[in-house]
């Protein structure tokens, strides 16, 4: 019985890995969302996921992406840290949720680490490494990501440009 349970777990893992690879390389967003959801990732309505997006291979159920989020190419979303476990196997693999709130934008190549919440209507700049929560309506950039602006201030600049 124990062998059968282990076999079933291995088959589930292989299937999840297959879905993960298919989703990363799928050019059609609705199918890509379906594949990620089949792995356990919670994805809202109107989410756009670009190519080569890596959404946690081992714990995809710890990722929540709310409505109208836009995720740029090559973004990595990770919910586990096995670094300490690799050095000392007595230390468990650390896991924590990643939540991306509605209307957020994640730029090309950004990395979102475990335990992070990206606030509603916030912007993560391309290449940023997000190690801490991003407040709503803020812009973060850098390694590690830090607040570099406010979404509302940037939107006002565009409104002024439209008036001229």
Give a summary of the structure in a few sentences.
This protein is an alpha/beta fold and 164 residues long.
Describe this structure in words.
This protein is α/β, with parallel strands linked by helices. It has a single domain, classed as Hexapeptide repeat proteins (UDP N-Acetylglucosamine Acyltransferase, domain 1, 3 Solenoid), CATH 2.160.10.10. 32% of the residues lie in helices and 24% in strands. The protein contains 4 helices and 16 strands. It has helices at residues 2-25, 29-38, 83-87, 151-163, and strands spanning 42-43, 48-49, 54-55, 63-65, 70-71, 76-77, 80-81, 94-95, 98-100, 105-106, 111-112, 117-118, 123-124, 129-130, 138-141, 146-150. The strands form 4 sheets. A 6-stranded mixed beta sheet has the order 2-5-10-13-15-16. It has a 4-stranded parallel beta sheet with strand order 1-4-9-12, covered by helices on one side. It has a 4-stranded parallel beta sheet with strand order 3-6-11-14, with no helix packed on it. Strand 15 and strand 16 form a beta hairpin. It is globular and about 70 Å long.
């Amino acid at each position: 019985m124990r062998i059968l349970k282990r076999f079933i777990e291995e088959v589930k893992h292989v299937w999840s890995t297959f879905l993960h690879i298919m989703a990363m390389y799928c050019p059609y967003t609705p199918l890509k969302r379906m594949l990620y959801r089949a792995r356990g990732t919670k994805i809202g309505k109107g989410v756009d996921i670009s190519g080569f997006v890596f959404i946690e291979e081992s714990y995809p159920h710890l990722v929540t992406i709310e409505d109208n989020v836009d995720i740029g190419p090559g973004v990595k979303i990770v919910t586990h840290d096995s670094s300490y476990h690799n050095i000392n196997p007595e230390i468990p693999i650390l896991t924590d949720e990643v939540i991306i709130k509605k209307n957020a934008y994640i730029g090309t190549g950004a990395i979102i680490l475990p335990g992070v919440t990206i606030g509603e209507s916030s912007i993560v700049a391309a290449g940023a490494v997000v190690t801490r929560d991003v407040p709503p309506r803020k812009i973060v950039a850098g390694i590690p990501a830090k607040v570099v602006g406010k979404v509302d201030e940037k939107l006002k600049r565009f409104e002024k440009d439209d008036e001229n």
